[in-house]
Write a structure and sequence with these properties.
7 strands, 434 Repressor (Amino-terminal Domain), Beta-Lactamase, 12 helices, 2 domains, 284 residues
């Protein structure tokens, strides 16, 4: 339903936009507003793709929504409506970092499940005691210590081990998340600096930035090696929190497995509040 409504909104905005307002000549026209070909040229996409969007046959990425809004020079209210119909939060100047009530409730209700909440640029902004009990997140004093992508591509954790397949999935997810954030928050200077640093420091990230891998499922498995030498294998599932433009990562073990028993033992020894805000020195 939203896809069809998004297409209708784009068509209405296109037809109500005068050519002169976007720098195009107005003469010799038999239809109102802009042609699909003109919108496509202004937004950097084909006229056929514009047609499919308007007919509700294609779902736009956040970058496409931004490109259309910029091409049509729409008002803020119209931009926010396009974003809402496409299922995205409207981008502002900076990556939002406020821990909203929805994210807070998640951390509080799943106190026995290792979990963190991150912003759109993959900076951790809050964790629970169960997550800290894994004791794998060592701090190095770097500016982007709390950024998951930076730690994965530029400063890997010693206590975080993955198979080649899971590492591929994990890397693809992080690169896609950061690229989406960059498309939605192009004015965030800190985010731009983070991306430049990662592309300089990590050949793998630079490759994924230029040629992204497809992301089928936003989860991967890893072994967390505790300082006592024992490890627990957990599956991390990334969940979107759209209203605040945040994401939550939940770490779970297979029910009834030895890893589930080990996780219960580790979490049972945890002592601390359900919501712990952590330092962020990255973008946003």
């Amino acid at each position: 339903m939203e896809r069809q409504e998004f297409g209708t909104a784009v068509r209405q905005l296109r037809e109500s936009t005068s050519p002169e307002s976007v720098g195009l000549p107005a003469g010799g026209r038999r239809v109102r507003g802009l042609r699909r070909e003109e919108l496509g040229e202004l937004a950097g996409m084909s006229a056929d793709y514009v047609r499919r969007l308007e007919q509700g046959r294609s779902h736009p990425s956040a970058g496409v929504v931004n490109a259309i809004a910029q091409a049509l020079r729409v008002r803020r209210a119209d931009y926010e409506r396009l974003c809402a119909l496409a299922g995205y939060a409207a981008a502002g100047g900076q990556v939002p970092t406020d821990l909203g009530p929805g994210a807070t409730r998640l951390l509080e209700r799943f106190a026995d499940t290792p979990m963190f909440v991150s912003d759109a640029a993959m900076n951790l902004i809050a964790v629970n005691s169960a997550f800290l009990a894994l004791e794998h997140w060592d701090l190095t004093g770097d500016r982007w210590d709390w950024n998951v992508a930076w730690r994965t591509f530029c400063d890997p954790f010693e206590g975080f081990k993955q198979s080649a397949t899971d590492a591929t999935d994990h890397e693809s997810i992080l690169a896609a998340q950061v690229k989406t954030a960059m498309l939605r928050y192009p004015a965030d200077a800190g985010l731009a600096e983070l991306v430049d640093e990662m592309r300089t420091r990590s050949r793998l990230f630079d490759t994924l930035w230029r040629t992204p891998r497809p992301v089928d499922a936003y989860e991967s498995s890893a072994a967390f090696v505790h300082p006592d030498g024992e490890s627990v294998t957990l599956v991390g599932s990334l969940l979107a929190i759209p209203g605040d433009d945040l994401a939550a990562l939940m770490l779970t073990a297979a029910p009834g497995s030895a890893d589930a028993a080990r996780l219960a033992e580790v979490v049972g020894a945890a002592d601390g509040p359900a919501v712990i805000k952590v330092g962020r020195s990255g973008p946003g």
